[in-house]
Amino acid sequence: MITKDDYHDMPDARGHFGPYGGRYVAETLMPAILELSAAYESVQADPAFRDELSSLFTHYAGRPTPLFFARRLTEKMGGAKIYLKREDLAHTGAHKINNVLGQALLARFMGKTKVIAETGAGQHGVATATAAALFGMECQVFMGVEDVRRQAPNVSRMELLGATVIPVASGTGTLKDAMNEALRYWVGAVRDTYYVIGSVAGPHPYPVMVRDFQRVIGDEARQQILEAEGRLPDLLAACVGGGSNAMGLFYPFVADNVEMAGVEAGGSGVETGKHAATLTAGSVGVLHGSKSYLLQDENGQVLEAHSISAGLDYPGVGPEHSLFKDLGVARYESVTDSEALAAFHTLARTEGILPALESSHALAWTMKEAAKRPKDQIILMNLSGRGDKDLSIVLEHGKGEGETS
Amino acid sequence: MNRITKTFQTLAIRGEKALVAFVSAGDPDRARSLSILRALARGGADVLELGVPFSDPTADGPVIQRASQRALASGMNLAGVLSLCREIRDEFPDLPVVIFSYYNPILAYGGARFYRDALAAGADGTLVVDLPPEESDELTDAWEGDGLCLIRLVAPTTPTERMRAIAEKASGFVYLVSMTGVTGSSGLDSADAARVTRDLKAVTHLPVAVGFGVSTPEQAAVLGAEADGVVVGSAFCRMIEEGADDDAIRAFAASLKKSLK
Hints:
The complex is a heterodimer of chains A (405) and B (261). Chain A has 405 residues and is of the alpha/beta class. Chain A has 16 helices and 15 strands. Chain A has helices spanning 30-44, 47-59, 71-77, 96-109, 123-135, 145-150, 152-160, 175-189, 206-214, 216-229, 244-250, 278-281, 319-327, 337-351, 357-372, 391-396, and strands at 16-17, 20-21, 67-69, 81-86, 114-119, 138-144, 164-168, 193-196, 235-239, 259-269, 274-276, 283-287, 290-294, 331-335, 378-383. The relative contact order of chain A is 0.16. The mean pLDDT of chain A is 96. Chain B has 12 helices and 9 strands. Chain B has a domain at 3-147 and 224-259: TIM Barrel (Alpha-Beta Barrel), CATH 3.20.20.70. The longest helix of chain B is centred in the N-terminal third of the chain and has 14 residues, at 30-43.
């Protein structure tokens, strides 16, 4: 039985977080994955790499992002104070840029001139296209046809940035299928192409590497809340698809034993089977290179996820979150499509912020939780991205008039 | 001696190379699939690979992806693949059968249960595409014996030292991926594949079967000149997709086999 005390020795050298993680990939990719592990290890010890990334965070990505006290939202809910970590204000409009700048620098360090990425909501694709433009690299982004349709503004952004968007029609045409196709392409192009994975998922070292590039969210937030309130928050909240923004926020607080909640996409409701609540309703399996919780049937076939949010519409989750769930480091909740939509409108009208539909899931849960807690408690929520990309989906469901919740 | 070793030895004595035939089991349905497997065996396949259909086959090109989808749509699962294996075993007592799978269906079935049931169904080996040697102990540790060969993969990207390490853990035969790409890719470079085959043969005494992108008797003949066997998969799956009858599949298998004699 693994306990929380074992956690600081994880992952092991082969990327195992207890029973999760690892490297479950075809042999053709294994040498590249091992090369990547070695390269990542060497840049971690390289001050020039760290300085360049830090400079890019400051002067290019716009870090640190603010920590904003949502006063009107707090008053409206009548309970705990709600702070928003404003990753929506980072360059390209989401936290995804943090990881991509790190990986693009690493790609350059490794001498790779071509990058590929998968994307769901398009935020990771936009971030990768952006970094590729900045570093003068060739970029191809795999995106499910359903997501190409529902996140059209991001498709245009990627193309304007010089990337090629490759629509993926297999499966449900969403994030899982985009990742399948990116992996297939990589199998054929692995000798000169770097694969920029966008979440804390995939084979080792990706889950660790993406966490390390995203932990800047939590590191900044920890310092900012100490400056603002003189103490740590009582609760952290973030949405979880693959789980990169949540891991980025949570990780620097693990040693503090702060309560943490990851909010998954409940789709039409977990009880309907049409959802993407992997940690809430899944079981252990292997997909896309690592072992983790997975939405699957009794034969080990992966099930289709369902969510209004393209970025959360994924049947897997990062392996470290699976460990967090088992150890009780974090708990995992879910909210439905309609709850997330309502939260979108509420934030727009109380604070003048249009949140991404992904972040709206964390927001919906945070609002409910704040209302239940006393006013002297503090909830720090990661507002992982901006909602401009989601306007057509939101408008399809009405303009939110009469929205009172 | 297991059937795989025995088959490769017998072929070596005859100066022949093995035809290893892959299909997605249950494609397009169980009854047709059984009939196709018989046609392959009668056409001269020396080893059968029964593909376990999987929802997310990331190492496969479009042809095998569609084959896998058709098999899933017909209700095929790992238990069903093993029951097909049982029928083939009864009809062809000496023919080696390898269960070819992604890891998740086996993980869901249970490693120990898979070992027992695969042996009981008369399977000789298994090949798990996304289970590199770094992760495979968790599967083999659950096995109660070593009656089932775990067929290992070597790719053109595999460095020599790693080839050696993989070969040391291998049993049955070593599957050499002929090109850097997914199954069914075009543009097979036979000279390149032959070079990697020689590299691999220099570090293992096990038979080497080479596959991926082999679709004609001519290609099979070139690869078979260096290797001990040649794997053909997508080409059969494409014939099944196009509705070829058993005679056509049998004739194609025979033409491939002829090129390996």
